[in-house]
Amino acid sequence: MKKSIFICFGTITLILGVIGVFLPLLPTTPFLLLSAYFYGKSSEKMQQWVLSNKIFGKYIKDYHEKKGITMKNKIISILFLIVSISFSMYKMQNLHLRIFLTVILIVVSVHILKIKTVE
Q1: Which of 30, 51, 54, 97 has the smallest number of Cβ neighbours within 10 A?
Q2: How far apart are the first and last CA of the chain?
Q3: How many C-beta atoms surround the C-beta of residue 19 within 10 A?
Q4: Rounded Cα distance, 62 and 118, in Å
Q5: pTM, to two decimals
Q6: HEC string of the chain?
Q7: pLDDT tens by residue, 42-78
Q8: Residue 22 has pLDDT above 70, yes or no
Q9: Residue 24 DSSP label
Q10: Which residues make beta-bridge pairs with 70?
Q11: Radius of gyration of the chain (CA)
């Protein structure tokens, strides 16, 4: 039963992480890390699938093992964040939401920049 619950949580957090790639308000990395954790508690095969995924596996594996991330990934992450939040701000007319998105952009960018840089 416990294994099934962890697999369910792992799948839910994986889906939320993938959705977070496209929605700037939903964080991607924490959900993918949670997914790897839940799968690690329930299914070695599914955990390895997350960590060896060709799209985000190396990034998550490096982050998961506390190695850090490459400068290239930092730049790509921040650029994607800027583009997606800028597009969201362009579509929104509400000043409060624009301020909120700007704060998110700054906080997430600072967090990404503070992560250890690896070669």
Answers
A1: 54
A2: 42
A3: 12
A4: 9
A5: 0.64
A6: CHHHHHHHHHHHHHHHHHHHHHCCCCCCHHHHHHHHHHHHHHCHHHHHHHHCCCCCHHHHHHHHCCCCEEHHHHHHHHHHHHHHHHHHHHHCCCHHHHHHHHHHHHHHHHHHHHCCEEC
A7: 888 888 888 888 887 877 777 777 778 888 888 888 8
A8: yes
A9: T
A10: 118
A11: 16
